[in-house]
Each structure stands twice: as C-alpha cells, then as structure tokens.
Amino acid sequence: MQDMLLIAACALLGAVVAGVLGAFVLRLVRHRSLTVSLYVVVFVAVAAMLAGTLMVAQAMFLNEHDLAVVTTVVAMAALVSVPTAMLLGRWVVARSRELTIAARSFGDGGDFAAPAGAGTAELAALSRELAATSAKLHESRDRERALETSRRELVAWISHDLRTPLAGLRAMSEALEDGVAADPHRYLRQMRTEVERLNDMVGDLFELSRIHAGALALNPSRMSVYDLVGDALAGADALAREHGVRLVGAGIDPVPVEVDGKEMSRVLGNLLVNAIRRTPSDGTVAVSAYRSPEGVVLSVTDSCGGIPEEDLPRVFDTGWRGTHARTPPAGAGLGLAIVRGIVEAHQGRAIVRNVSGGCRFEVTLPTVEV
C-alpha cells in the first residue's frame, strides 16, 4: 500500500510540474493560433506522463533496460499524439478561416452564407448565430431604406402642401392690401380656412415628432367603447354630410377600455376622416367595436374600392398617401402614421385589409378586466 502511495505521489508531482509549465506557456501563446495551443496541450500530456514515469522509475530503482522500455513507449505515444494534434489544429483553423471570410462578407453589406464544410459544434452554433444576425441586419436595412424613402416623400409633400396655402394667402393678402378684392369678406373667410389647414399640418407634424421621439405622454382612464365611438361619429358627421357619405355605427359593444381619451379620439377621427374622403358620394363608412380573443377591436370600413395589395404594407408609413396627387384632400400622409404611433403607445396594433368594395382599418386594444 505504501509503495502505491509513493508511486502515485511521484507521478502526481511530475504531472503537476509539467502542468504548471504548460499553463505558463499557454498564457504566453494565448493570442496565437489554436494550433499552437493544441501543440502545447499535447506536449504537456506527454511531458506529464514522461516526468511521472521517470520519477517513479527513480523511486523504484528500475534498471537501464526497463527505463529505456518505458521511455520508448512514451516517445511512441508522443510520436502519434503530435501529428494528430497538428491535423486537428489545421482542420479547426481552416473552418475558422472560412467562417471569418463568410462573416466579413455580410459585414461589408452582403448576406451571410455559412461555410459548406462541417465544423465543430461550437463553430456550427456560431455560424447559426451569424446567419440569424445577418437576417436581422437585412431586415433592418430594408426598414431603414423604407423609412428614408418615406422621409423624402414626406419632405417633398409637406413642402408642396405648405407652399400651396401660403401662395394663396399671399395672393389674397396682396389683393386686400391693393383694394382690388371684389368681396373682402369672402377673402377673409378663405384666408382663415387656409390658416386652419396650415395649423392642422403643423399640429400633425408636432404630434408625429412626439411619437417618434417617444415623448407621447398618455393619461389613460377607463371608458366605454360605446362612448368613444359615439363622440368620434358626432365629430365626423359634418364632414360626412359635406361629402354625401353615410356614417353607420353598427355592432358597437359597450366594452370597457383603458385608454387616453383625447389620443384615442384622434385615432378614430383620423380613420373616419380618411375613410370619408376616400369614399365616393352616396357611399357608406361603417364603424364597429367588439371584443375578440386578441383584445377589443375597433374597425372603420369604407367604400374606397380597396387598396392595391403591394401598397398595403406601406399604408401606415410616414408620408404614404397612396396617390401621387399633390392637392387636398390628399393631406401630407401623416394621419395614419399618427394612428399607428398612438395605438402602439397603448400596447395595441393597427392593421388594414381589403374587403368587398373597400378596405377595413382595425385597431386592437388590450382587454380590460371587468
């Protein structure tokens, strides 16, 4: 028993010495290639075996022949281990280089394509993560391009829509100043109308800027959807009469919601104004509200004839108007963008879909427990 303890102690001492030296060398070469680290690990293993064997041999007083046999066995193990480590190191390094080249490609603006050769489990996991990151980056670039396009369209349309009433105001003010206005009171009424248009545009821009900056402060309170929709219909009634459009409030369930009444009234008002202006005379705009498994759904259905399928994803984008018209009532393309921003601030979602003869805008709000 004592002999076995002595042998174990001698072998452990030799292995510890080799391991300490190997750890020191590994620290020195930690920034080098993985192949170098594999060489060090193999040499440490062989050195630990050899050091332990030599110390045990000295303690056991082996003769020269037996010591030579043991040393030869260790040398043969090293002779096989070192080439194996070299092959493994070259294979891992080659896979790593392929992965580096593939990663560089999508970092330069392309898409990530995983290397064809099979790698280790860790390299395969890294490859999958890079592929997922590449997909997210591609989506982000698409969104950025879409937003940039929307911003350019918004600047162009806002510039035109502001220039038009300003030009009219200038002409009417000059006519009044020169005393050539045949009906000054009519000019003043028209000037007030144009000023209100400008005020509405500036108000929409300010609201949109607050939404984009995350500075939209909500003051939610519990209220009935029935009252919310009723107020919105009453506010849009005059515009509907002017355009010869029928407003219908059908299937409005008196379910409770917890929302900012002012902001949500703006949402419904924007949807109704948009629907009324897009619906031809003698058409119908219907409003409904009901509870669904996803939440409380408010819908506004018009008779505009539908939206082209390719335009549906852009309906709520800033500056989108669905037409190249530059004159009222097309607007600046801010109303629906404001709708989406306010609804998302309430943790809800806004969607649009085509229905028979028109389209339906749906706003889904979180359900309030009764």
Structure commentary:
The radius of gyration is 38 Å and the shape is elongated. A hairpin with a 2-residue loop joins strand 4 and strand 5. About 2% of the residues have low confidence. Helices cover 63% and strands 12% of the residues. The strands form 2 sheets. The chain has a 5-stranded mixed beta sheet. Strands 1-3 form a two-stranded antiparallel sheet. It has 370 residues and is of the alpha+beta class. Helix 3 packs parallel to helix 4, helix 4 packs antiparallel against helix 5 and helix 6 runs parallel beside helix 7. The protein contains 8 helices and 7 strands. The longest helix has 58 residues.
Radius of gyration: 38 Å
Structural class: alpha+beta
Write down the overall mean pLDDT: 78
What is the helix/strand order?
HHHHHEHEEHEEHEE
- Biggest sheet strand order reads 2-4-5-7-6
The number of helical segments is 8
Largest sheet: 5 strands, mixed
Q: Unreliable segments (pLDDT under 50, ≥5 consecutive)?
A: 324-330
- What is the global morphology? elongated
Approximate strand percentage: 5-15%
Roughly how many Å apart are the termini?
A: 79 Å
Helix content: 55-70%
| Tally of DSSP β-strands | 7
Domain Histidine kinase: 157-369
Catalytic activity: ATP + protein L-histidine = ADP + protein N-phospho-L-histidine
Transmembrane segments: 6-26, 38-61, 67-88
Keywords: Kinase, Membrane, Phosphoprotein, Transferase, Transmembrane, Transmembrane helix, Two-component regulatory system
